């Protein structure tokens, strides 16, 4: 059983943490609080939320509690989704307004609806007035498992099934709830003694990986300064730098290493276009001298020497301890891997 909670996070970090939680526990998703819009600053909203999640054979089961918000699985999230699943969401408290394939449904407590991760969808969860939370139990089912069971799966999503009315919907809702409540007995890996907070270390690692993917995709076209990246992920600059503490590279050295990797890929491409000065400019270096210093710190030779050493091996790699200690400036003379 995995468990995440925002309770032990500072208020200013809770929402950004929560966005990473729902992606880790479910599928790539984007979340937005009521009336919130990006202003270039980190979100400062407090949001009390938790997720309990456990696997049962090929299905993942989870119970979620949070505050009113809009959760979307848009074009960018669909592109990032690597597995095809259908979510069957049973509402416990509050209600959900779901949209997919041009359909709109309202799911009240006791009802459920299906949403397909291969297509875009939106979930507007609205908290109960008294408890100020909504809760649902969600089953993530492999899409291939449902195709033989549902006559037209594409037409079955974003449609409310009322579990309070007699019929098949009531049986499905009751089975979902009893399965979740009895999961510890069904799953040997479950049990309250195995319940653990996977929040801080796992989610920091997940957030750091997401930042690294964003950096790699935007090195040449976007603002990769610490302030801009922190705002993009809804965290403080201080928190961004903390994500890299205890790793091989700081945030700034990670950015620089990714720039070097980009230059290296171009230098090893079958065809190369432009001069080294243009290469330096494309990958965000101040000038060719800057590229030369950083490139030699990483690879032990200059970019101009790099291609001449193929295919036997471009350069003598510089040890990681030296490399991480030398960026962005020149490493100590005794530690540079020099040519014979």
Keywords:
single chain, 340 residues, alpha+beta, Jelly Rolls, Arc Repressor Mutant, subunit A, eight-stranded mixed β-sheet, 13 strands, 37% helix, elongated
Q: How are the SSEs ordered, and which strands pair?
A:
Layout: E1 2-5, H1 11-25, E2 30-32, E3 50-56, E4 59-66, E5 69-73, H2 75-80, E6 85-93, E7 95-100, E8 103-107, E9 111-116, E10 121-126, E11 134-142, H3 143-146, H4 153-156, E12 161-162, H5 168-181, H6 183-186, E13 196-197, H7 200-218, H8 226-232, H9 237-243, H10 251-267, H11 276-282, H12 288-299, H13 303-306, H14 320-326
Parallel strand pairs: 1-13
Antiparallel strand pairs: 1-3, 2-5, 3-4, 4-11, 5-10, 6-9, 6-11, 7-8, 7-10, 9-12
Give structural notes.
With 340 residues, the protein is an alpha+beta fold. The chain folds into 2 domains: 2-198, Sandwich (Jelly Rolls), CATH 2.60.120; 202-335, Arc Repressor Mutant, subunit A (Orthogonal Bundle), CATH 1.10.10.60. Helices cover 37% and strands 21% of the residues. An 8-stranded mixed sheet has the order 12-9-6-11-4-3-1-13, sandwiched between helices. Helix 1 (11-25) packs across helix 7 (200-218) and helix 8 crosses helix 9. The radius of gyration is 25 Å and the shape is elongated.
Summed over residues and divided by their number, the pLDDT gives a mean of 80
CATH class bucket of the largest domain:
Mainly Beta
Quickly give the structural class: alpha+beta
Helix segment tally: 14
CATH architecture of the largest domain: Sandwich
Count of all domains? 2
Query: How far apart are the termini?
Result: 57 Å
What summary fits the major beta sheet? Answer: 8 strands, mixed
Oligomer: single chain
Q: Examine the coordinates and then state which fold CATH places here, giving the name of the CATH topology of the largest domain.
A: Jelly Rolls
Strand content: 15-25%
């Amino acid at each position: 059983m995995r468990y995440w909670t925002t309770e032990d996070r500072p208020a200013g970090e809770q929402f950004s943490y929560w966005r990473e939680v729902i992606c880790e526990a479910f599928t790539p998703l984007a979340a937005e609080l009521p009336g919130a819009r990006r202003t270039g600053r980190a979100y400062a909203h407090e949001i009390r939320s938790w997720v309990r999640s456990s696997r049962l054979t090929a299905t993942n089961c989870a119970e979620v509690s949070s505050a009113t918000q809009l959760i979307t699985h848009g074009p960018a999230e669909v592109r990032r989704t690597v597995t095809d699943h259908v979510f069957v969401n049973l509402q416990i408290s509050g209600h959900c307004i779901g949209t997919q394939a041009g359909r709109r449904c309202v799911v009240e407590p006791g009802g459920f609806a299906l949403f397909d991760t291969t297509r875009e969808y939106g979930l507007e969860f609205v908290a109960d007035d008294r408890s100020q939370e909504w809760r649902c139990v969600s089953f993530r089912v492999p899409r291939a498992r449902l195709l033989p069971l549902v006559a037209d799966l594409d037409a079955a999503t974003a449609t409310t099934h009322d579990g309070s009315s007699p019929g098949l919907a009531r049986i499905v809702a009751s089975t979902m709830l009893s399965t979740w409540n009895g999961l510890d007995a069904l799953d040997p890996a479950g049990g309250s003694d195995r319940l653990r907070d996977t929040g801080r270390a796992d989610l920091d690692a997940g957030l750091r990986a997401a930042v690294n993917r964003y950096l790699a995709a935007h090195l040449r076209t976007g603002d990769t300064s610490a302030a801009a990246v922190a705002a993009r992920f809804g965290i403080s600059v201080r928190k961004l730098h903390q994500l890299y503490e205890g790793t091989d590279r700081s945030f700034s050295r990670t950015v620089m290493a990714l720039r070097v990797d980009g230059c290296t890929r171009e230098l090893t491409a079958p065809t190369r276009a432009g001069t080294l000065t243009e290469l330096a400019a494309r990958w965000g270096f101040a000038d060719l001298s800057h590229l030369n210093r950083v490139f030699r710190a990483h690879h032990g030779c200059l970019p101009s020497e790099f291609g001449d050493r193929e295919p036997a091996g471009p350069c003598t790699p510089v040890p990681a301890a030296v490399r991480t200690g030398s960026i962005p400036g020149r490493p100590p003379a005794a530690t540079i891997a020099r040519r014979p």
